[in-house]
Amino acid sequence: VTLVRLPAYSPELNPVERIWLYLRERFLSARVFPDYKAILDACCSAWNALTAEPERIRSIANFKYIARVNA
After folding, report:
1. Nearest CA to 26 among 53, 66, 8?
2. What does the pLDDT read at residue 30?
3. Which residues contact 50 (CB under 8 A, 6 or more apart)?
4. pLDDT for position 38
5. Ranges for the Tc1-like transposase DDE domain (predicted)?
């Protein structure tokens, strides 16, 4: 048995976590989906709307402390 130490979970250091939070709050919250396909369609639509705004992605995911952690 080999023990593999995993890093601590730090969602604040993961830009993708911030992007998913934005998508949930802006496009996916307070909705009831009738089926799995509707969920996928809503997620794809939200993702496409976000990718049309590269500056918004930068503002959501680009934090100064991330650059310091990666240095």
Report:
1. 53
2. 92
3. 19, 22, 23, 56, 57
4. 97
5. 2-38
